[in-house]
Amino acid sequence: MKKQLIIKKKWLTILSTLSALTVLTTLSCSSKAKQNEEATNNISKDSNSDSYSNIKNNINNEKLNQISLNLRQDAQIAIKNFNIKLFSGSITKDNFSNYFTFNNTDQYDYEIENIKTDPNNNNKLNFDVFVFNKQKSEKGKITRSFSFENDIQEIINEESKKEEFEHYIEIKDTTKNLYAATEFFKNKNYTNLIRPLHRRYFTFRIKNVTKTTMDKANVVLEMLLNDKIVKEFSVTSSNWKGQEFLNLSNDKKSKYLLDKHIARYNELLSLKDFKKKAPINYSPKDVVLSDIFNIEQIDGYKIEIEKVSNSENLEAAKLKYKFKITNLKTNTVTYSNPHELGGFARPNDPTNYDDFNDEYFKTTSDEQKNQDNTKLQEDVKKINGYNFNLRKTGDFSYLDPSFMNSKNLRYFLGFTGPERVEIEVEDENGATGKKKIKPYNYDKDIQIEGANESGVSLLKLQNDYFFAFYDVKASTSKDNYKTQGGNDELTFKLGLINKKNPKIKAHTNTIKLVNLKNEVADKYFRIVDLNKITLDNLEIKNSELSNISVSELISKNNSQDLIKVKYDKNLFKYKKYNLKESKYIEDFKIVASKEINGNTYIQLGFDKNWSTKKDEDKQEKSSTWIKINGLKNNDKNDLKINSNYEILKSLGINSNLLKLQNSQNEFSRYRKLEFSWKNGIWKTNTDKSKIEYLLPNDHFKEIFENTSSNVSERLIHLDLPIFFNNGFKSFELQFLNKSDKWAYATINYDKLRTSKTITISNLKANGQGNKKDNTTEFSLKATLRDDGIFIEIIPSYPGLKFTQNLFKDVLNGYPKDFNSNEDEIDETRVNKDIAIFYDSHATKIALSYKNNIKNENFIDYQTNIFDYDKVTFTQENQPFVTRNKYTNENIYKFNFNQNVPYKWSEGYKTNLEVLHDDYDFKEFNDIKARVFRSEGTTGGTFTMFKKLNNDKNDYKFYVITNEHVVEDPFDMLNRPTKYLKRSHLLMHNNHLTNDLYNGEKFYEGQYNLETLGLTSFWYNKQNDPKRNNHYIDVHISIVDIKNMINEAKNSSRHEMAAWLENWMNLKDLDFSYETLYESKSKSHLTYESLYSGFPQGKLYSYMHTRPWVNESIMQFSKDDFLPVFNRPGNSGTSVFNNNGQLWSIINSANFDVTGVAYLMSNPNVDHYGSNANGNPLLKTYKYSVIAQLYRANAYDPYQFKLFEESKVK
Description:
CATH topology of the largest domain: Thrombin, subunit H
Largest sheet: 8 strands, mixed
Region (Disordered): 35-54
Structural class: alpha+beta
Distance between the termini: 62 Å
Oligomer: single chain
Mean pLDDT: 90
Number of domains: 7
Keywords: Signal
Number of strands: 62
Helix content: 10-25%
Signal peptide: 1-33
Strand order of the largest sheet: 29-30-31-32-33-44-36-38
Protein name: Lipoprotein
Radius of gyration: 37 Å
Shape: flat
């Protein structure tokens, strides 16, 4: 008997370590995690002793006795205001400091050792506390108690009503399939295979087992509140399906365990790299399963996966596999039964482009007389240019013939014809009942002369045939284009392969299309080229200029004879200029001139060939001016200006980068700088006596400290939104929005570099004047530091202080009759505490300088590349080709050219960008890992927001969307959650079907599961009087994905299973408060914003650099050339910033034009309630997210852990 027990224990030990059975490892780890947690508490207690082992316990008892435990004042306010119901079980080490404090925290630090339920009173807690003096030279230990008014007994009774054992202690289904109840509960064999659960405040443990059968056990549980047993009760564990196997022979045990293990089939498979080696990337015919899958092993065996020969079902994207099992002891090999596995790539148009030619697309001889082949051969000979139209991205075609090939042409040419099924329509005489092909949706401009409709519908043929372009060749009939390497014509052939019988093939004759172009490149590249022109590119007839004035040069329209722009194939990006004599560009001409200091400056431009709203906009003018010598001077028009900056200013400094070429090797520039929300905000100092700002090094140093250039006359220009707050009548209209009312200062960098500090005095801030201008003076101090230029603005009049509270102190800071027309309010009568206003976000700083650099480029790579090798083809059937080489290092790095459109390829950052799915940088990867589509009462986009708690075995998460998507109100003041419904989850993926890709369907396939349970946690009901009508369209739900992971594996959704499992590795999100500043000038700064959403169920991802922002919303609009899909389904889309936080949630849209997101915090209400801008316990809005969290945490502190941003700092 003793020997038998030893054998059993040995097998139990083996079982507890077998990786083959998830149940054993997981539950063993869970149990150990619980033990480790308890051990950690003990270790923490001991380590305190170790850490402070040299500290004597010499805080005397008299001092210790004076220490009292108190409920915090702010906690008392929050308990009442937020309706928090505290019970003795509500307090844990994690939330203790948010509710309690000690009376002398200025003298001592405290650390909770243990929280215990009082032996005689379940509503009383005893706290064992370590006490340390501030110098950590003395320590002591105290116990303090606190009694709670709310009686916990009713909760004890309520939380012990359930009769199912598994409600209190978790056992995996795989364990119950393996064991018989009799054997599992015998001799405490369950010890490492169960995980006690928290039910609100309580945990549970087995006291004894009263009765067992093979499939059932009756058990007595002990219910614990902290360390105290508060109740015992009986429960039943049912539905055990295993066998008694511990007494079997070793061979039979092994066989039993192996069979149970193998029977899990798909559950044993996990992807080696779900981001790069997902099944969807492989055809069932070609996949090597061992390359993409890991297999959960079992001790004593080696398990491998093999594809069953000829088991592939290509249409269904499935195959069958079997496990090859090697007994490591005997080296014998056995195989499992075959099992089905899906989720692979479906058949699509052929991609073996190198094989395509006329011979490849010939029907085999044995199918020549096939009726389908005969009809196909008749049709293909009719196909011509009318069967194709341009696939546009928004309003623009990107089809540049020079970059087309067999691989990418399909993305830019669509098929014309009627719907895929012919329908009855009226004929020309109105007669019905006749089947007729609807008119072709062709592009007339790209058809060759004399072509006619073919009568064949490629859209209809696409149902039965695969297509492939080949023999793709670019050309042009224009000699000018040939000289430059530009093309506007394209010839190609189209091959067809029957989907059911691939022996039937055909190909068209050569098809020609004309007038093709990348419309965006053709627009921007000319602007880029225009601003590259310098003296090197001009051919000037100096001998003929001396008798001609500038005005004559332009008016006589002979500038292109006397000053010509030479074509340079290597310099200019546009390839379709009108060339004279094959070497001069006729498109560019002089559009403006100025005479300064006896010199002539000319500005070049060209006539736009795209539509404009105003006549004056019909010319594109260069931002570069070039000094030309030799023209006759007109003294009447000659400006006399001394400084470099004044010359630049006279030429007009409206563009973000103005360049002036003074000579062959001297250039002057005026460059406006762009700032982000991270580095562009001015702030008051502590006592509000100064405004401070740090101009970071990366915004000036690379230019001003460039040792390879002869940089000189370095000035920093500051337009300062500083105003004398003396009772404005119309502040925004008459002051803030008028640049001439702003103060202005110039920092001479040459002097600052020498002296390290300079002060500019007697600067004036404008105020409300009635009979005369009313101002107050201030000074500006600039200090050159290691981290940049530190700027301070200081009032000259003693005692005046700054405010940045626009609404309270400026718009509403004085009575309405203050500063009437009869009064002039000076410094003696103004409210000194709010005397000067400075708009925190109205940052306008520019640099002016000279150097010898012809073209300033600050990066060694190109931006905004038209990449025809990596085309993103969307579910909207639009090609996106504009790309940037983003990395974690450069994605948000400042570039001096980022706000200069004509630096398109040298750093310009467009307002709107499509984020291609293969972009690999941190913030976008995080979005792809947590965004999904689901439905509440309507469909929308959801984002995994946070994990509920830090339990590694708990797979519950908060998810966030719009309130109008979920619409599930409940009494948040009195309950933590409300179950909503079961819904679907469509994960973020790049494999949904479009016209060219036979992928996954919206509600079907491997990226969708129908078993997502949504439980409402926080909502915001519109126009609720109890909330003072504060409303934001945001809803937070809770989802539990634990069972979905195994469900995904069992249904061949292994990529989805891995994606869901990865949620456990993602960081928690929170909301940014950086938009909460009271400023009317927030849009002066960039707010890098990223989001992915599902407009009409079609996935799109964007980055907006310059959204419009005010005190309550962010607005995201389409770009001049890039479409933005704002449609139903985009509701609920989370907007991420470049700091790993959320700005807000998109809730409304102007269809395909603008999306709007209301901010979680605004001057009227803080819907979130974070500690980012104050004590969360003292915030007054009882319906905030954090207020609901405090109620939920008091209800169940183990389920609803406090967020870091909810804790008192």
